[in-house]
């Protein structure tokens, strides 16, 4: 099956959005779509993720939707590296990266780094030990890295693991920092932890929505008043 034919089937199934698992009946919607379309699994396996912004399995992987990922695997969808990271299949991760070391810094749906698919601190550690780089630049204009993404998601567990492996990944004093990312999302625990690590609180962001703004300004701009109060204490 060609990628072009496969994507036509997947588009008709309309399951990429539900595969994020953001609504409580998404699992049932995905299951019904798989039941209805006999070529669903073959189509998903034929997709070339490099030619798409996101596949159904990529959507479930970067959002950590384990129930939907298990459904895909039970139905015969081939497990890729991003799915393995989300499901904490560390043995498969090691085997894959040992065969292809460059895969340690692979980018999945929306250009999200493999590290940000890790379903646990232990899996993040496995990836780091296999060469995943917490300072890998995913998006140049604002210097976006896996540390930024972890902060943006409020994944403090992962952020701590990245920082333990490479303290400099959260310690930038200028430009768009992981603290900017956490502030924009209003992730209080993540912000509090970074401030307690003496991360500079007044860096001025660069690029896109970050340009010229401090973390506190981003918190206020997005209505995160509790986060803004944490920064007030720094003055």
Short description:
This protein is mainly alpha-helical and 235 residues long. Helices cover 51% and strands 0% of the residues.
Q: Calculate the terminal CA-CA distance, rounded to whole Å.
A: 60 Å
Low-confidence stretches: none
**Tally of strands:** 0
What is the string of SSEs from the N terminus onward?
HHHHHHHHHHHHHH
Which percent bin holds the helix content? Answer: 40-55%
Q: Report the sheet with the most strands, covering strand number, pairing sense and barrel closure.
A: none
Query: What do the pLDDT scores average to?
Result: 92
Number of helices: 14
Class by SSE composition: mainly alpha
Radius of gyration: 19 Å
Strand content: under 5%
Overall morphology: globular
Describe the overall structure:
The protein is mainly α. 51% of the residues lie in helices and 0% in strands. It is built from 14 helices and no strands. The termini are far apart.
Give the SSE layout.
Elements (H helix, E strand, L loop, with lengths): L2 H11 L12 H11 L3 H7 L9 H7 L3 H10 L5 H6 L3 H10 L21 H9 L16 H7 L3 H10 L12 H8 L2 H9 L18 H7 L3 H8 L3
